[in-house]
Specification:
Length: 351
C-alpha cells in the first residue's frame, strides 16, 4: 500500500509540473458611458438617462470578474453614444494603443452605448496596432433596470479579452452571449436585447457565462495588419451621409460640400442608387474635389461597383458590404492620406 501511495503521489506531482496553471491575465476596462452606465427612477420604466454611473460602479456590479482576471478600470468619457465624437475616438484609440503596448496589459474592454458601437468598433478595428484582444460591450437596459443585461455582458467581455484564442481576430463586440466582429455587426432593433446582428459574415463566436467558442476569424485586414495610423492626427476629415429617398433634395449634397465636407456617403436605395438630381449633384461634388462613396440604406447585401450606377463615369466608390455608417469611418481614415477615388476603392476592397 505504501508503494502504491508513493507511486500515485509521484504521478500527481509529474502531472502538476507538466501542466502548470495559466498565468492570471490583466484586463483594463475603459468606460465611455452609454445605456450600460445609465440609470432610471424605477426598475421598470422605459425612459432613462445614459452615462450616469462611473466605471467603479460598473465593476462593483460584477464581483465575479475576479474569477477571470485582474481587472482595473478607467473613465475615458461618460456620454450617451449618440454623442460619440471624433475627439473621443482619438482619445480612446490613443489610450488603447498605449495600453496594448504594455506588457502589463493582456486585453482591453470598452463599455459603450449601443447606438454607435458599430462605428466605434470599426474605427478601432482599423487604427489599433495590436493583436491583443480589444473587446467592446454594451447593454440595452440601464444599470438600474430589472434584469439589466450589462453585468453579464461585462463578464463575458472580460472572459473574451482574457482569452488567448481571441487574439488576432480584430476588434470584437460581445453582447447577449454573442461575439461579433467590429466590421460585421450592426444594430437592428431599437429596444430588443438581441439587437446586434452580423448579417453578411455571421458571428465570430459565442460566450456563455465566460465559456467561449469561436467559429471564424475576420477575413479583411484589421488591427496590426492595418495601414492606418493616427500618429500626429488631431482632427479627422468631415464626411457626411446623405440618406436617399423619393424626391431627395439634391441641394443637400451641394450644401454639405460648401460647408466643408471632404467626403460624402450616399445611403442609396437598393444597390446604392440615387435620384437623377442627386447623381448630378454627386458629379458636381466629385468635380469639386470631394470623394463620394455609394452605400445602401438596405439592411444587408453588397453595394457593387458599376452594377446599376456607373462608378467609372461618376468617379464614385462602391462600399461593398459596408453600411453607410461604416463606409463613413473608412472614408474618413482614407482621406487622411489620399483623395484619389481609385486608391480609395482599393482600400474599400481590402478593409
Amino acid at each position: 500500500m505504501k508503494l502504491r501511495t508513493l507511486l500515485t503521489a509521484a504521478v500527481l506531482t509529474t502531472v502538476a509540473m507538466a501542466a502548470p496553471a495559466q498565468a492570471e491575465k490583466n484586463i483594463t476596462i475603459l468606460a465611455t458611458g452609454g445605456t450600460i452606465a445609465g440609470s432610471a427612477e424605477t426598475q421598470t420604466q422605459a425612459g432613462y438617462t445614459s452615462g450616469q454611473v462611473g466605471v467603479e460602479t460598473l465593476l462593483a456590479a460584477v464581483p465575479q470578474l475576479e474569477e477571470l482576471a485582474n481587472v482595473s478600470g478607467e473613465q475615458v468619457a461618460n456620454v450617451g453614444s449618440q454623442d460619440m465624437s471624433d475627439e473621443i475616438w482619438l482619445k480612446l484609440s490613443a489610450r488603447i494603443n498605449e495600453l496594448a503596448d504594455s506588457d502589463k496589459v493582456d486585453g482591453i474592454v470598452i463599455t459603450h452605448g449601443t447606438d454607435t458601437i458599430e462605428e466605434t468598433a470599426y474605427f478601432l478595428n482599423l487604427v489599433i496596432d495590436s493583436d491583443k484582444p480589444v473587446v467592446l460591450t454594451a447593454a440595452m437596459r440601464p444599470s438600474t433596470a430589472l434584469s439589466a443585461d450589462g453585468p453579464l455582458n461585462i463578464f463575458n467581455a472580460v472572459a473574451v479579452a482574457a482569452d488567448d484564442n481571441a487574439a488576432g481576430r480584430g476588434v470584437l463586440v460581445v453582447a447577449n452571449d454573442d461575439i461579433h466582429g467590429g466590421r460585421a455587426l450592426t444594430k437592428t432593433n431599437t429596444t430588443d436585447v438581441q439587437t446586434f446582428r452580423s448579417p453578411e459574415r455571421g458571428l465570430i463566436g459565442t460566450s456563455l457565462y465566460g465559456e467561449n467558442t469561436y467559429f471564424r476569424t475576420p477575413y479583411r485586414l484589421h488591427t496590426s495588419n492595418s495601414q492606418f495610423s493616427l500618429q500626429g492626427v488631431t482632427e479627422l476629415p468631415r464626411v457626411d451621409v446623405m440618406y436617399m429617398n423619393a424626391s431627395f433634395s439634391a441641394d443637400l449634397i451641394d450644401s454639405a460640400v460648401a460647408n466643408g465636407a471632404k467626403g460624402l456617403v450616399i445611403a442609396g436605395v437598393g444597390n446604392g442608387n440615387m435620384t437623377a438630381d442627386a447623381q448630378a449633384a454627386v458629379s458636381r461634388a466629385v468635380e469639386g474635389g470631394a470623394v463620394v462613396v455609394r452605400s445602401s440604406r438596405v439592411p444587408s447585401g453588397v453595394t457593387g461597383r458599376n452594377v446599376e450606377a456607373n462608378d467609372d463615369e461618376l468617379g464614385t466608390v462602391a462600399s461593398g458590404e459596408l453600411n453607410p455608417a461604416k463606409a463613413r469611418i473608412l472614408l474618413k481614415l482614407a482621406l487622411l492620406s489620399t483623395s484619389d477615388a481609385t486608391e480609395i476603392q482599393a482600400l474599400f476592397d481590402k478593409y
